[in-house]
Amino acid sequence: MSGRPVADVALNRTLLTGEHHVLELIATGAPLGDVLDALCRVIDEQSGLTSSVFLLDREGTHLSLAAAPHVPEAWRETTRTFRVTPTASACGAAVTRREQVIVTDVLASPLFAGWHEAARASGIASVLSTPFFSKDGRVLGTFAVFNHEREAPGDAPLGLVGRAAHLASIAVERHETEQELRESERRFSTVFYAGPASMAITRFADNRLLYVNDRFLSLFGYSRAEALGQTALSLGLYAEPAERQMLINRLDACKASDVEVKARTRSGAILDLLLWLDRIQLLGEDCVLEIACDMTDRKRAEAELARSERLVRLVLDALPVGVAVMDGAGDIVLNNPASQRIWGDVIQSGPDRYARSRAWWHDTGKPIAPEEWASVRARLKGETSVNEVVDIEAFDHVRKVIQNSAVPIRDADDRITGAVIVNEDISARTTAERERNDAFQELRGLTGRLLRAQDDERRRIAQLLHETTAQDLAALKMHLARLSRTVTGLSTADRAAFEESMELAERAMTGIRTLSYLLHPPFLDEAGLLAALRWYATGFTDRSGIKIELDLPAALERMPREIETTLFRVVQEALINIHRHARSPSARIRLRVDADHLTLEIKDRGRGLPSELMAQLPAGGGALGVGVAGMRERLQQIGGTLVIESSNRGTTVRATIPVPPDAA
Asked: How far apart are CA 495 and CA 487, in angstroms?
């Protein structure tokens, strides 16, 4: 009987033992390098060749040496990592072609063109490289066998390499699966324990907590030791126990999503939660994954927002002005009852409403074009418009006057997202203002007529006093003078009474003449304003003792009687006030004419007017109020203005009027 079968049996038994050892390493989770190293040793012992394992990276671009227990160091250094190409060694070609590659002469093969020196140093003459694959056909790497002889491998080595490649694929794929599992577990653990939402895993059979994350503990106020092994019911997490049955019913369908419930914390606080429940398998056990988001603050914010919206709605409904809000597209999203009352209907959305809206600019009567509306300018250009007065024809065809305002609405990035429009119906106010202005103009006209009538009456009375009373007194004085020459034999007492009558007649005649001149100096009509001012200044100095300085032009063209009378009355009233209130030893009258205006100033050097009296002058109050109001009204009748300036160094009254035609 031959010894060959016995040797083959022993060889196979040794090979099986080696393979079992490799499989045990794989099954016990030994490091991949140790498994592949043991596999190479088994093949090397059985074949007498030198084997190695190269692993392909996930991108499929590089091969890296993973195991080579008996490969010379020079070859290990050269082949530690290299890029996969069809011409990069037998291993690169095997990966690219996805088939076994045999090179019988390394030094003559173009696949090892750059590796000849390492091959000589390592004594490598021929190479066999076999790719191994995953279950889904992806190349995992190659099992390479090196020979010191230039020859093709026999059937026995090829069989060993085939079995080795199969074991290598098992080891590598198991390693990748375990790595993916560990990475998945790591990611799940990270997501579970560090997640921002409260998460728990309970056993479906008894609802006991198996795992809880940190957010669960901080949300409900329990420690992990206190929570694990308990149920939500035993911890008192159900604020409304009836919700428990609802959740159980939903879990019968395996999943519950977006369920709003109320929960109770350890301290008794009530939380609003949004809950997701899902049935999962964990280590072969039926469990429930529970994810809860705390909506308490959001619920409170929503309630507060709803309350604020109700308040805003109440305010809008109560406002007497119309308010409307449009979005970025120009559609009306909100308007209040006052807006509907103003427009006679609900303002419709869409740009065609501008074509339906008839409106005109109040000041010019020009129709308002669609792009000219304040709301359009606010939305498209970001303009703010306040109280633009426009005339509208409301949707019920009633003409109205409104104040129209619009303000753009901007988001956090300063983009325009809409506009707020405010309308106020001022039709009644506009009518009242127009009637008031008409009444004021009528009053102004009446005042002017009264002032002119007053001046005419003064002129008539002055003329009457001058032509009648003064003349009668002059005649009386002449008769008395005649009698004084003809009457004799009067007693001393009668003579004294007669002479006193003569003096009384003289004083009465002088007083009447002065009164008539003060009422209306004849110089004003006969010689003009300059002569009247000079005469009045001289007489005022004589009567009051206040020295008057005159700064008048040498000549002045005659002006309309109303203007000359007004300027004279201003001087007259100002000097009377100086005499009564200023305690000034002197005053100056200055008259200047330029190309556009005539300016008259009366200035004293007195104590000035008190601030409280100055405050009353515009309203016509105080001791000076009536006189000042009269001066101001006279000047306004002829288009002039009156300014009063006062300090502790004196008071200046300044009257300015436009230069009348033909005045210089």
From this structure: 10
Say if pTM beats, i.e. exceeds, 0.85: no
The single-letter DSSP state of residue 329 is T
How is residue 561 written in tokens? Answer: 């009687």
Which residue type occupies 468?
Answer: T
Buried b (16+ CB within 10 A) or exposed e, 134-153: eeeeebbbbbbbbbeeeeeb
DSSP 3-state assignment of 574? helix
- Distance of alpha carbon 23 from its chain centroid, rounded? 70
Residues 208-238 as b or e (16 or more Cβ within 10 Å = b): ebebbbebbbebbebeeeebeebebeebebb
Of 224, 265, 259, nearest in space to 244 by CA: 259
Collapse the DSSP code of 43 into the 3-class scheme (helix H, G, I; strand E, B; otherwise coil) and give the result: helix
pLDDT in tens, 405-456: 999 999 999 999 999 999 999 988 888 888 888 777 777 667 667 766 766 6
The contacts of residue 279 (CB under 8 Å, 6+ apart) are: 204, 251, 254, 255, 286, 287, 288
Euclidean distance between CA atoms 115 and 107, whole angstroms: 8
Q: How many residues does the chain have?
A: 664
- List for the chain the helix, strand, coil content (%; round to 5): 50, 25, 25
Yes or no: say if 403 and 423 are a contact pair by the CB < 8 Å rule: yes
Separation of CA 636 from chain center: 49
Cα of first residue to Cα of last residue in the chain, in angstroms, is 160
Q: Is 374 exposed, middle or buried (0-12, 13-18, 19+ CB in 10 A)?
A: buried
Q: Please write the tens of the pLDDT for every residue from 124-175.
A: 999 999 999 999 899 999 999 999 888 888 888 888 888 888 999 999 988 8
Contacts of residue 367, Cβ cutoff 8 Å, sequence gap at least 6: 358, 359, 360
Amino acid, res. 213? N
Nearest-angstrom CA–CA distance, 131 and 93: 10
Contact status, residue 601 vs residue 590, Cβ threshold 8 Å: yes
What is the spatial distance between Cα 325 and Cα 116, in angstroms, rounded to a whole number? 83
DSSP 479-532: HHHHHHHH-----HHHHHHHHHHHHHHHHHHHHHHHHHHHHS-HHHHHT-HHHH
Instruction: Return the residue matching tokens 């195991």.
Output: 67
Query: Which residues are CB-neighbours of 353 under 8 A, at least 6 positions away?
Result: 347
Nearest to 15 by CA among 46, 60, 38, 49: 46
- Beta carbons of 253 and 234 less than 8 angstroms apart: no
**Rounded distance between C-alpha atoms, residue 248 and residue 324, angstroms:** 49
* Nearest of 595, 598, 570, 587 to residue 650 by alpha carbon: 587
- 175, with CB counted inside 10 A (0-12, 13-18, 19+), is buried
